[in-house]
Amino acid sequence: MNGIIGMTAIAAAHSDDSERVRDCLQKISQASKHMLSLINEVLDMSKIESGKVDLTEEEFNLSNLVDNLLTMTCAQINKHHHELSVNISGVIHENVIGDSLRIQKVFTNLMSNAVKYTPDGGKIRFSITEKPSAQEKVGCYEFIFEDNGIGMSEEYLSQIFEPFSRAVDGRVNKIQGTGLGMPISRNIVRMMGGDIKVESKLNVGSRFTVTMYLKLQDSTEIDRGKFADLNVLVADDDQMSLESCCDILEELGMKPDGVSTGAEAVEYCTVRHQKNRDYYACIIDWKMPEMDGIATTRAIRKAVGDEVPIIIISAYDWSDIEQEARAAGANAFISKPLFRSRLAKTFNSLEAGEEQPEQTAPLDVLADMKLSGRRILLAEDNELNAEIATEIFGTTGLAVERACDGAEAVEMMSKCADGYYDMIFMDIQMPRMNGYDAARVIRAMDRAYCKRIPIIAMTANAFAEDVQAARTVGMNEHIAKPLDLKVLAKTLRKYIVK
Description:
This protein is an alpha/beta fold. Helices cover 44% and strands 20% of the residues. The protein has helices spanning 2-13, 18-50, 62-79, 100-116, 154-157, 170-173, 181-191, 239-251, 262-274, 293-304, 322-328, 340-352, 362-368, 383-394, 406-415, 435-444, 448-452, 464-472, 485-495, and strands spanning 58-61, 83-89, 95-98, 123-131, 138-147, 195-201, 205-216, 231-235, 255-259, 281-285, 310-314, 332-335, 375-379, 399-403, 423-426, 455-459, 477-480. The strands form three sheets. Strands 1, 2, 3, 4, 5, 6 and 7 form a seven-stranded mixed β-sheet that branches. 35% of the residues are buried.
């Protein structure tokens, strides 16, 4: 708070110096994010200590959860030039049941700590393993987060799960943290019947092992018959990733050949082509020494032509190299870790001749939606939040009409013609009538239009029980503040861009 107030005063005193003001705004933004994190964690800890946390049970997919984790942390990983390795082993059941939001919180905390406490250019490894389970329709999963960072002393390891504890280390003092992340994470995991174990040595690194039990959804078997005995080449310099990918391909009934360099991949493809026995597909890692995935793809295309599908895999955000990779001859892209369903889906798409859509940045997606002529109702009592939301929606061409509270939103819906609004974005904490009650009243109106119009909760109430409460009163989705533009873009695509 001192940073926010101080930098605001400095910016006001130098309003004619745009560079100084810009620097102040950047520091205010950083301090605000840290303060928001502290508030959220104090609230989380308070709920846990009072016993008011109710775990939700919802169906989710492990591969999607991991994708979200990597998306949220990849910017920081790239900023610090860390080498990230992601591997899975023996994961048969990907579709599970549990509290995905809280699991995501635990994983994000552990991954963020690995990034923060590992010096630039360090190594971070994330591993997922499905272990044998003695319980019917319950899977046992082990998630390991390890790094070669600054590590912790034995003395501090005994205190790491105590609220507000931080290691006495000059290097740690320079890194923002609240000392609540680990206690919250362990409490959440233990509420799910699991546990977190930690091993660490000073100046060597740390290893956090999360064991978790999740109910299994009714599984849909992959048709292995169509993949039986197909030859696939895998090129990856990470031995664990290479072995994991080959294991999954064998589970699908395929016959993989594994190599660790781009030069070997080109040689293997050339030899088979000369024998008129081309590979069914090639899976090439992007980050390889000497010859990377793009150079390897280009060389394979030169040697064997355009018939063999080439899939680029990476633990990094591949959107930056997508255009160059496609120009070199890549057909598809998959993010690590390589779940079995993801590989099967990619092969099915290639067989069907489907084009994999190119990635775009969230702001580009918003700008490209071109929703002129469409209209939304924004229920928001806070002037600043309303201004921000209106500005963001304006990039899409959407017309925005604002209600200052839930009661006014209900009144505007009762007076408008059917189809006048395409969507409602509803804050929760508002005077006179809150968002839950407003949504409930709108859904109860004797008009089919009011029962089907998409209502989206857009609120700082971001606990799992808040998400469930929004669904209970008839809202379609829940978007947490501060707004995640990727989530917003996805929601607009789902309900307006049909």
